[in-house]
Amino acid sequence: MIRAAAVAVCLIAAACTPASAESVAPGIYGDVRLSEESGDLGGMELELIGTGTDARVEFVLCEGWCNEVGKAPVRFTAEGFRFDYVQHYVNGDGSPAPSGRYDVEATPLATGLRVKVTPADNPQGSFSADLPRIERRFGLAVAAGE
Questions:
Q1: Are the C-beta atoms of residues 115 and 106 closer than 8 Å to each other?
Q2: The whole model's pTM is what?
Q3: Most C-beta atoms within 10 A of its C-beta, which of 18, 64, 91, 109?
């Protein structure tokens, strides 16, 4: 009887444990949109590639345009997964400007991922979005020049 109760407690605890990134299907998640008025692109897009220790992401944050794909390995957490990337910036004349490093947390949702982006030099400047699963790359394709 005690053994059966212990097994039941373990099963209940496992059922209540939040889903990890390992339970997220590889795929593309995003909300990048084109403004009909301005022609600007805005939003973010993430592609989870692979599973387990080989999992990695390609990520783009579009603010006016989708400029650069950030590529990084995934670090699993109890809530989902994390990664960080460096965004390279250029001045108006094309010369390099200081780069920015971002920490990203992704938490599985029933319909996609909740993605929180935090500038490493400004933790109060974090922002998040719920990204639905999408069929094909859009922002990532623009940034990669595809």
A1: yes
A2: 0.79
A3: 109
